[in-house]
Write a structure and sequence with these properties.
Layout (H helix, E strand, L loop, with lengths): L5 H8 L2 E2 L12 E3 L9 E4 L12 H6 L4 E4 L9 E3 L3 H14 L5 E5 L4 H12 L5 E3 L9 H7 L7 E5 L7 H9 L3 E4 L7 H4 L2 H9 L10 E5 L13 E6 L6 E9 L2 E8 L2 E7 L7 H13 L4 H8 L10 E4 L4 E5 L5 H11 L6 E5 L9 H13 L5 E5 L4 H7 L3 E4 L2 H11 L5 E5 L7 H8 L5
Parallel strand pairs: 2-3, 3-4, 4-5, 6-8, 6-9, 7-8, 9-10, 10-11, 11-12, 16-20, 17-18, 17-20, 18-19
Antiparallel strand pairs: 1-5, 12-13, 13-14, 15-16
Helix pairs in contact: 1-3, 3-5, 3-6, 4-9, 4-10, 11-12, 12-13
Length: 450
């Protein structure tokens, strides 16, 4: 299917057009919110941020050959601008109109941990039979999802949309745009607690996804999660996990270096899958992908073939053999649930186990205790050394007791690394994205021991 034309977008958001009429029949080559990514034929969505106003970059974008801009300010006569009172609101209106053009299954993926992994795993599984659209990277919020849907064009049989929120009401806006036919709940953990309060609050915020779903929609939920296993979604619900309450279960889970394998048990079916992914906690993403794929009619062989195509995204549990040690680079995000899962998987690797952990952000008033609990978990689950850096991460070191070492600043930690790491170590580097621990991962890669 072709993408939306500028004229169709104009009608969807009821904006004012300033350019030539001929442009209204054209379809953008790309849709961007960053002027640096604009090029010939682009549609530039102009947003006002805390640090800069995108309107100042419109002249530069038009010089690059942009097809049009969506903005809140009028320009010179003839400039190809769709002018609206609120760019973000207009983006959401256009995205909703784009979604309505597609008569294919849309699957929304939400939860506290593992959304991107589950989205990628599901898209991989479905690729065993179908052509699948998936939201790029972590474009899962109030801006990323509209950008993805506005630019959606091509021939697809299914769409997998990652849907992330941190405030009440955000999911309502997203689900009214996406209108998922199916929804996957990965888990409910201690994430975004500053705004959502507690785990029941997290579940309420995620469950807003139901408001945009029709009565015939299907929910897929982690049946091993204390809250999800008991939730009444008011729709057909398929549980996945290890428990006997789950309709789609895993057996014979094995971590073999950088691949994880298991048998999928569901409705009398029993088949093996092997996925190029590190961490036994990945099995939950495998199970969610299998559950949705089975519902959409894929065969055992198609699911296994698709899952074998899975690829890790960004700095999410990426295993790097440096020649000196084995690095697990997991710097994208962190909360107690994901930290403990990563610690469990690290314990499966040979060698001395070392964790380099940083702040877990947006943990609310209970943040010190939650950080300390991660340290306590590490010391009781086979970790030999816990290094921390960050204002809150010091509590992790406290919880780790004798094996915990805290560094007051980044430079001190980086200087100490070569002396603290040993050849053959298995090293986990993990923190919230805002802690910028990728600098530490890169430093670990440079250690040679010579």
């Amino acid at each position: 299917m072709n993408g939306m034309t500028i004229g169709e977008m104009l009608r969807a958001c009821r904006g004012e057009w300033q350019g030539n009429k001929e442009t209204l029949d054209k379809t953008p080559a790309s849709v961007v919110t960053d002027s640096r990514q604009a090029g010939e034929g682009s549609l530039f969505l102009v947003l006002r941020g805390e640090r800069t106003d995108g309107h100042r970059y419109i002249p530069d974008v038009l010089r690059k050959g942009a097809l049009a801009v969506l903005c809140e300010e009028r320009g010179a006569a003839g400039e190809p601008r769709i002018v609206v009172p609120d760019t973000l609101a207009a983006m959401q209106q256009i995205a909703a109109a784009s979604r309505k053009r597609w008569d294919i299954p849309f699957i929304g993926v939400t939860g506290s941990v593992g959304k991107t992994t589950a989205k990628e795993m599901l898209a991989a599984a479905l690729s065993g039979k179908y052509s699948v659209f998936k939201t790029p990277g972590s474009m899962n919020g109030q801006i990323g999802i509209p950008v993805s849907l506005i630019g959606l064009h091509g021939d697809y049989d299914a769409a997998v949309i990652e849907m992330g929120v941190s405030l009440f009401g955000e999911m309502t806006r997203l689900t009214n745009i996406v209108q998922p036919d199916m929804a996957v709940f990965t888990n409910i953990g201690d994430a975004h607690l500053e705004a959502l309060g507690d785990r029941p609050g997290v579940l309420r915020a995620k469950s807003e996804i139901l408001q945009g779903m029709k009565n015939g929609a299907v929910i897929f939920a982690n049946g091993d999660d204390a809250l999800l296993s008991k939730a009444d979604f008011g729709r057909e619900t398929v549980l996945f996990g290890f428990g006997e309450n789950c309709a789609v279960r895993a057996a014979d889970v094995q971590q073999n270096g950088e691949t994880v394998s298991c048998r999928i048990l569901a409705e009398g079916r029993d088949f093996a899958v092997t996925v190029p992914a590190y961490g036994t906690y990945m099995i939950y993403s495998v199970l969610s992908a299998a559950a949705v794929s089975l519902k959409l009619g894929l065969s055992d062989e198609e699911i296994a073939r698709g899952l074998a195509r899975y690829e890790t995204v960004g700095r999410r549990s990426r295993v790097v053999k440096t020649g000196f040690c084995t690095l697990v680079d997991d710097c994208y995000n962190a909360n107690p649930t994901s930290d403990c899962a990563a610690i469990d998987s690290l314990a499966s690797l040979p060698g001395r186990r070392v964790c380099i952990l940083g702040d877990m952000l947006e943990m609310g008033g209970n943040a010190p205790e939650l950080h300390r609990s991660v340290g306590e978990y590490a010391v009781t689950h086979g970790i030999d050394l816990v290094m921390t850096q960050g204002e809150l991460a010091g509590r992790i070191a406290e919880g780790a007791g004798a094996v915990g070492v805290h560094f007051a600043d980044r430079a001190e930690l980086l200087e100490a690394l070569p002396g603290l790491l040993r050849p053959g170590d298995a090293v986990l580097v993990k923190a919230s994205h805002g802690a910028h621990f990728e600098e530490i991962s890169e430093a670990v890669k440079q250690i040679t021991g010579k």
